[in-house]
Amino acid sequence: MRSKFDRQLERLHQELTRMGALCEEAISASVLALLEDDQDMANIALAKERDIDQQERDIESLCMKLLLQQQPVARDLRTISSALKMISDMERIGDQAADIAEITRHIGGASLPGQVHIAEMTQAAAKMVTSSVESFVKRDLELAKAVIRYDDVVDQLFVEIKTSLTGLIRRDASSAEEALDLLMIAKYLERIGDHAVNVAEWVAYSITGVRRQ
Amino acid sequence: MPDKTILSAKDLDFFYGPAQALRHITANIPANQVTAFIGPSGCGKSTFLRTINRMNDLIPIARVTGSLTFHGRDIYAPGVDVTALRRQIGMVFQKPNPFPMSVYDNVAYGPRTHGTCDRAKLDAIVEDSLRAAAIWDEVKDRLKKSALSLSGGQQQRVCIARALAVRPEVLLMDEATSALDPISTAKIEDLILELRERFTIIMVTHNMQQAARISDKTAFFLMGELIEYTATERLFSMPRDKRTEDYITGRFG
């Protein structure tokens, strides 16, 4: 029974995992472009962003097809409607990675203050993205909740970066422009964390049927 | 506002000879709402529907225990006037079953049986009923033609008009659209939503999308038991019972 539907749902899971992986790669590439002053990496991040957009459209049409053909109810309905919401957040994550890559085009990588934290923050944000998608595929409510909690870590790192950049501007006003660029990057990473939280909240909804307030 | 209960079953059991078809059904059915019964074939949903206007009385080996009340009065109490009960609780069947007579006479049949002979009164009842069943415009110029000359969807709406002509409070619909094409089905679904203002509708359907589209509450039956009975939106988005989830998502068996 319903073996075709189950295969289609399996494919939806695979495509979402792939989109999550693309997001993670885009984030890593954009930040490597910054930390290692590597424009090839920036171009890779921009290319990944286009792949993510395409992946969003593909998953969207798969979901539309499932809604049309299977008229899903209960858990299936929640899975498919959550997937449709999740891909919007993942698409935004791709945009923000591209925004970071754009900034690296006019900012030198060498000896930037706050770099340590940026690297750390990138890891944290990327981990949230990966875990949120993994929690969907494995229907792991605890992992989804862990992603939501982990947002505090990313937020804290943002505060630390902001503090160290404020100090930098105070000491050396000529570095203000660079510092502001870094602050933007940190803000993008912080937003990526928020989108991962949204994804995790949709995962929690698809499992429990209850929307977090 | 709490739902006003019109029908109430408590520990209702139903037997066909030695076979038990309904087990301890307990449910309150709200007035002026659409209640859908779903479940696999043989689950008891049609049996329960037919206990409501005592259609099962026609089966000699049938036996009912427990209570089933309509406006608080026991439907199975001794001395209940079954004809009067069926006037208050009308029924529409799966296959359109117009009588082999004119459209007019089909609809006037019930009121005439119940003693209305006045021509003007009958005309008014026939027109009102055909309008309420959303078929007036299609048949007003052929009221004297045989109802059997109509299409299936039109016949079914004439049957609904016939059921409405005796001013029932409750309308039971046993898969009333399953033999119809999608357009006729859509017309009858629209009609059900309009009729809800004036009647209580209880429908058995195998079409879950139909239950999801037009019912306020849905009851899921399985092997004679009422497994889950709740607001339709809730049942189709977040069923409580795993058996409900398995059935509505097609994971059964």
Keywords:
heterodimer, A: 213 residues, mainly alpha, Methane Monooxygenase Hydroxylase, Chain G, domain 1, B: 253 residues, alpha/beta, Rossmann fold, six-stranded mixed β-sheet, four-stranded antiparallel β-sheet, 10 helices, globular
CATH top level class name of chain A: Mainly Alpha
Structural class of chain A: mainly alpha
CATH class of chain B: Alpha Beta
Instruction: Give the overall pLDDT of chain B as a whole number.
Output: 93
Q: What would you say this structure looks like, in words?
A:
By secondary structure, chain A is mostly helical. Chain A has one domain (3-208): Phosphate transport system protein phou homolog 2, domain 2 (Methane Monooxygenase Hydroxylase, Chain G, domain 1). Chain A has helices at residues 3-35, 39-70, 74-104, 115-137, 141-171, 176-208. With 253 residues, chain B is an alpha/beta fold. Chain B has a single domain, classed as Rossmann fold. Chain B is 36% helix and 26% strand. Chain B has ten helices and ten strands. In chain B, the strands form two sheets. Chain B has a six-stranded mixed beta sheet with strand order 6-7-8-3-9-10, with helices on both faces. A four-stranded antiparallel beta sheet of chain B has the order 2-1-4-5, with helices on one face. In chain B, helix 3 crosses helix 4 (119-132), helix 3 runs parallel beside helix 6 and helix 4 crosses helix 6. Chain B is globular, with a radius of gyration of 18 Å. The model of chain B has no long low-confidence stretch (mean pLDDT 93). The chains are: A mainly alpha (213), B alpha/beta (253). At the A-B interface, helix 3 of A face helix 8 and helix 10 of B.
Layout of SSEs?
The complex is a heterodimer of chains A (213) and B (253).
Chain A: H1 3-35, H2 39-70, H3 74-104, H4 115-137, H5 141-171, H6 176-208
Helix pairs in contact in A: 1-2, 1-3, 1-4, 2-3, 3-6, 4-5, 4-6, 5-6
Chain B: E1 5-16, E2 19-30, E3 34-38, H1 45-52, E4 62-70, E5 73-74, H2 82-88, E6 89-92, H3 103-113, H4 119-132, H5 136-139, H6 152-164, E7 170-174, H7 182-195, E8 200-204, H8 208-214, E9 217-222, E10 225-231, H9 232-237, H10 242-248
Parallel strand pairs in B: 3-8, 3-9, 6-7, 7-8
Antiparallel strand pairs in B: 1-2, 1-4, 4-5, 9-10
Helix pairs in contact in B: 3-4, 3-6, 4-6, 6-7
